[in-house]
Automatic annotation (TrEMBL):
Protein name per UniProt: Polysaccharide pyruvyl transferase
Domain Polysaccharide pyruvyl transferase: 12-355
Taxonomy of the source species: Bacteria, Deltaproteobacteria, Bradymonadales, Lujinxingiaceae, Lujinxingia
Superkingdom of the source species: Bacteria
Keyword Cell division: no
UniProt-recorded Gene Ontology molecular function terms: transferase activity
Keywords tagged on the record: Transferase
Length: 425
């Protein structure tokens, strides 16, 4: 079986974890002979970091070529040309279609036409904070070729712009299966007229990541040695954020960074913690953002006696490596949602900082909503009491989260079984 996974951004560690988990889950359900082709935003670079995947360039980026200064005029024409070729190809006129295409474009279109399934990767990219046109173009090509289109676990919407509402409605009504990470996303689709019968709320794909069970057990005894045997080991994941609800980017980031700095200072001074800043988006110079930059900005504000117990891990880590690393920590303050999920898989307690509703809904489903901090309102007065409570209740929190992880994994694997059922039907 030939499966395309499209719309990936594998240089983002969270997206890489989603990709790996989808491949793990679908391989288990569809068989070891399943062959995956991954259409990514930066395939040449992604191959260097994840050499086992067959990466190709996203259709939209492959097609949207134009001389400098002529992009607004030429690019829409290029995309119309490619859509015309897809229409010809779908009607058996492959030779005519090839006359409209470059060699690379023809190869990509043939890969799509021969795919048994086209899976749009999981994540949060169908939201109007971002440019969704490249995604919609991809879906329209898949549907024009008559290929089964599946949406893996999405957090999406709302769609306020009428032009988006119409196209999203048309695409999702033609999709074969839609897996959503939360009830709110389902409501966003229902609100614009998407049929409900193929919409399923499912767990995030990363819960299906195939990791060695021995790596997902966590105890204080496994923590690395430090100055004192009593020292806690705490990981902190931070990121830059530009979409604060009531504050400017500068004001919001200042409050967020001050809160994290206060929390880290409290951990070192009160809980004798060793703190490591580590995240899913780091160690890849070719990627547009680096969480370690935000980490350094925070660490630079810490008192010297606190900085002595704080370090910034700037290295690249695969998702599996992160699970192994996070298993050695007692707790993780996680802003990146997939950093939180990888820590949960590792058996480590998590205090999440939510910047989108997906994180809040996840922890509420796991019965751990009380631990969520909102990036829009976080401050020292709210964060520090939660840190104290987390360490006071650490065994109970771990047990609660372990139950939630087991449940979320079962639900995530059920999503892959729905794909198998679709293939068998």
């Amino acid at each position: 079986m030939k499966v395309i996974i499209s719309n990936t951004v594998a240089l983002n560690g969270g997206d890489a974890a989603i990709l790996q988990a989808i491949v793990d889950a679908l391989t288990a359900e569809l068989g070891d002979e399943t062959r995956f082709t991954v259409f990514d935003s930066q395939p040449e670079t992604a191959r260097r970091y994840y050499p086992t995947f067959d990466f190709q360039k996203l259709l939209y980026l492959l097609v949207s070529r134009a001389p400098n200064g002529l992009g607004p005029i030429i690019r829409p024409l290029q995309r119309s040309r490619f859509k015309a070729a897809a229409s010809l190809w779908s009607r058996g006129k492959e030779a005519a279609a090839r006359l409209l295409l470059s060699g690379a474009e023809a190869d990509a279109l043939q890969t799509y036409a021969e795919a048994d399934l086209i899976v749009s990767t999981g994540g949060t990219y169908l939201v109007e904070n971002y440019d969704i046109e490249p995604r919609l173009f991809d879906y329209e090509i898949a549907l024009a070729l008559g290929r089964p289109l599946i949406f893996y676990t999405q957090s999406l919407g709302p769609f306020a712009e009428p032009k988006h509402q119409r196209r999203v409605r048309d695409i999702f009504n033609q999709a074969s299966l839609v897996l959503l990470r939360d009830a709110r996303s389902k409501e966003h689709l229902l609100e614009i007229g998407v049929r409900p019968d193929h919409l399923h709320v499912c767990a995030d794909a990363v819960f299906a990541l195939d990791v060695d069970a021995q790596l997902t057990t966590n105890s204080v005894d496994e923590s690395p040695a430090h100055d004192s045997e009593d020292r806690r080991n705490v990981a902190v994941s931070v990121r830059h954020w530009s979409h604060f609800k009531t504050l400017s980017t500068d004001e919001g980031m200042k409050r967020y960074q001050n809160a994290i700095a206060s929390g880290v200072t409290h951990l070192v001074e009160t809980h004798q913690a060793e703190v490591t800043f580590i995240s899913t988006c780091q160690g890849i110079p070719e990627y547009w953002t680096h969480d370690s930059k935000t980490a350094h900005a925070i660490v630079d504000t810490l008192p010297e006696h606190v900085r002595a117990h704080v370090r910034v891990d700037e290295a690249f880590h695969t998702p599996q490596d992160l699970v192994t690393t996070l298993a050695s920590f007692d707790a993780v303050i996680a802003t990146r949602m997939h950093m939180a999920i990888l820590a949960l898989i590792a058996g480590t307690a998590v205090l999440p900082v939510s910047y989108e509703f997906k994180t809040t809904e996840l922890f509420e489903r796991m019965g751990a909503g009380r631990w969520v901090e909102d990036i829009n309102t976080i401050d020292a007065q709210s964060l520090i009491p939660k840190l104290d409570a987390l360490f006071a209740e650490l065994p109970a929190v771990r047990a609660l989260l372990a139950e939630g992880v087991a449940e979320q994994r079962a639900i995530a694997l059920e999503g892959a079984r729905k794909v198998r059922a679709l293939v068998a039907s």
